[in-house]
Structures are given as structure tokens and as C-alpha cells.
Amino acid sequence: MHYRSFFLTAIILSPLILQCTVPPKMTFHQTKIIAHRGAWKAIGTSQNSVASLKEAIAKGYFGSETDVHLTADSQLVINHDATWGGLTVQKSTLAVLRKTKLSNGEELPLLSDFLKIIKKQNRTKLILEIKPSERGREWANATVRKIIDAVHQFKNQRRIIYISFDYEICKEILKLEPFANVQYLNGDKAPADLKKDRIKGADYHYSVFRKHPEWITQAKELGIDINAWTVDNSETMDWLLANNADYITTNEPELLFEEIKKSPTSQGWKMIWNDEFDYSGLPDSSKWGYETGGNGWGNNEKQYYSDADTNNAIVKDGVLSIIVRKEKRGNNEYTSARLTTKGKGDWKYGRTEVRAKLPAGRGLWPAIWMLNSDVDKVGWPDCGEIDIMEHVGFAPDSIFGTVHTKAFNHLIGTQKSGDIIIDHFYDRYHVFAMDWSPEKIEMFADGEKYFEFKNEHKTLAEWPFNSPFYLILNVAVGGNLGGKKGIDDSIFPATYKIDYVRVFQRE
Fold first, then answer.
1. Given pLDDT bands bounded at 50, 70 and 90, which one contains residue 385?
2. Domain count, the chain
């Protein structure tokens, strides 16, 4: 891609607030992408090499991360591990270390080699990881001083972000360079602690943020940058992008760039509600309630919906499972669960995304849908219904999306709907999404739009979608639609798996 078009695309996709003042002529790419040890993987070159740094710059990534050690003869070398060629870097001289070449034939690079290259451009920042020292605090502090002196020598202060697992190293940098952008790697400090010590970034392994999602909110409130390392799979990238991470460090920068383009946050959406199911037990009661009973639900369904029963709804290993069982409950032959956000999550307009793996079997009827929060007052179908995804087991490989209103509903055969056939239907997760604005409702499966319903600006009978709605997840058994071709009792227990639910609204 031409650099100019890449730059414009990156700015549109992913604005990033820098923590330092950039001179008027400096225009860094702001794609959130930090290439881990340079952009080495796609071109098959060495990590932490001059070639990998140049490739990161050529691709226009926001940053190129690298690792710095001080040798026994006071040379600053680029290398990840504490050893090189079987020798301890901090106890060896440069000449001895350079007897072993990088896999691409380069000599072991010096920091000065990188600083010369980074100075020639204003596209990519150099992320310097200063390694903890095996030789004690005095050696570590000497390393810090020498690195800062080198950065100043090349007038690269505003092209550098410093990172370290050693908290004392972070503080030492700020003693010598009070306005430096310093970020901490170890993951054991809350954002408030970083703020107190003037450290500008929580640069933690992504698992830390999954364990402490509240730190993301706290960091945003305190002006602390969020970076996650080392993220090489699309699911984690998507989660971090949805949570508006400032930076993502990756060995797969090309994949991350594609995920950024697809992310709702790159299209002006901001996540306002979500459940990632990063806990165990019953669904979070602050987010989910239950609709219970076995009254047929107006569709002659055969299941009984249980109330807060882990036999039918349980969270484990990052997934919500709705389990349908063949067991008697009252006058019903089956049990299931119907989870709702009513009174806990009600939204007017926005984008709803659910990543789910559907259960297979004739007689099952899993769904993701929404009802008007005033349904009890207004009644159905006047209240309106949005079916983001429905599937019936007798029609494998396909789903459908539907809207119901007073004028358009299945009781009078006027409902508006669309459907789509999906590859690998039951053996993997799929993302089902709905975009809802004052003008239209659109349905998507794995990013492909398959249904659109436009507001013709007539009456509430045609468009009752200008008030808050809540979300429902359930699996019915049988019924007027799901049971059209009977129920196969050999499929039970059947499990509907939900990986996440995310709701976005426009910034």
C-alpha cells in the first residue's frame, strides 16, 4: 500500500492520543500497532534486526519494539535474551558477541544503529525495553543513563517510548527524563499506582486485562495508556480493540491491521455494555435475569425455562452455556434457559454483537433477539421485536433475522426477514450482529450483511424502534416453528455456547 494512503486510512481507523508533544512537522502513524521486535515474521527476517525495524517503518506501524542490554565494555546492544551465542551479554564484550551473527546474516545491532534509522523518519516510534540487570541496581541505572544519553545524542527524545519489567528502572528513567513516555510491563500495579509515579502506560500481558477489566476503565479515567502484549490471535485483538486499547504489541502486525479495519471501534462505535464471561458459575446477576416457566410462550414450545439453575445456564472457561435437557419439569418434557437484560441493559439504537456456537439437532430453536422495554405496557406485536439471529435445527447451515411490528408480523404473514447460509455452521463460533439506527436495522453474520429493514417514517405500526430495547438469549424446543419437523430426542443434552455479548453506540 502506498504510504500516503496507508497514513490516511490509519488516521481514520484508529486515532491515538500521544502522551508527548509532537513538533509541528512530526506526523506519526497512529494505528495502535506495535511490531514486537520489529516486523520480522512476514518477511522471514531476524527478530530485533535492522531489517525488522526498517520493515516496521516501511509498513507504517505506530511502533517497533526492541530490547536493549549493556555489554561488559559499555556498548548498548539490541537482543531479547540475557544471552547471545551462549554468552551472557552483560558479561561479554561487543567484539566477542558479534562473532555470532543473526539468522539473516546481520551483526548483532547496536542501539545507535536503530537510533540512526529512527531519526530519518517521523512515521514510527521506537519502543525500547530496558532489561533488568543480573549485575545489580548500579548496573541497571548505568544502563538507563547510557540509553538516555544516546537518545539525546541523536535528538530522538520524541520518537522513543521506554518500557521495562523493572519498576525501579521506570522510575530512574523519569528522574533523568521527567517528560519521557515510560510504560510498565510487569502487570502488578493498578493504574492509580502508575499515575502516582508519573508512569504513562500500563503495558501488560493481555491476560492481566482479562483478569482486571476494571483497570481498563480506571486507566482511561486517569489518562494512563493501555498496551497489551504479545497478542497474536484475532479473538484477543478484537477484545482489546472493543475495549479501546491504545496500543497492541504483536508478532502478527498484518493480522492486527486487518482486525482494526473490521473493528466496530474503527467505525465510530464505542462499547457501552458487554459480558465476556470471564468468570465461573451462574451468569452475572448484575447483567442477566431470567424469564421462567413452561407456558408454551405463545408458540406451543415444549421446554420449561428454569430460574438461576447451573444445569441450564452456566459460565465456565470463558463461555456461557445454555444447556437444553430432556427432563420433566411440570407439564414439560424439556428444560432450558431464557436469559434477559431487561432492567439491567436496555438500549436505544446501537450495534449488538454476539459470538456464539449453535447447537445442532432437529427440534432446537436457539435465538438472539430484542424486545421493547415497554412490552408489558404496549403488548406484542405493537411493541416491536428484533430477531438478530434465529436458527431451527431442521434447516442446518442457515440462520434468519426478522423484525416484527404491528404492521409486519408472522401472525398476519407480513413479517420482514432475511436469511443466510453459513459455512462450518456447527463446528465453530460465528459473530452475529445488528446495527440499529433511526433510519434502518441491518443484520450481519461474520461481517456479511444479509438483511436490512428501513424506516419509511410512517407510523408506530411500521416502525416502533425509537425507544429502548433489551436483549434475550434462549433455546426453545419444538413449537410452531422449531418443531415443524418434530423433535429428535437423541440430541439431548444440547448446548448453545456464547463467547461474548457486546453492545456499542456511536461516539
1. very high
2. 2
Please give the full DSSP string across 375-442, using - where no structure is assigned: HHHH-TTTT-EEEEEE--TTSTTEEEEEEE-SSS-TTTT--EEEEEE-SSTTTS-EEEEEEE-SSEEE
Does residue 97 lie in a domain region?
A: yes
- Predicted confidence (pLDDT) per residue in 97-138, tens digit: 999 999 999 999 999 999 999 999 998 999 999 998 889 999
Strands (E), 196-318: 201-205, 225-229, 247-250, 269-275, 289-290, 303-305, 313-316
Task: Using alpha carbons only, give the angle 324, 386, 381 rounded to the nearest 5 degrees.
Answer: 100
259/335 same-domain check = no
- Tell me the pairing of strands 313-316 and 269-275: unpaired
Using DSSP's 3-state secondary structure scheme, residue 160 falls into strand
From CA 378, how far away is CA 423, in angstroms rounded?
A: 39
Q: Domain range holding 485? A: 289-506
What cell does 160 get? Answer: 522513543
Catalytic residues: 385, 390
At residue 332, the 3 state secondary structure works out as: strand
Instruction: Convert the pLDDT of each residue in 130-155 to its tens digit.
Output: 998 889 999 999 999 999 999 999 99
The pTM for the full model equals 0.89
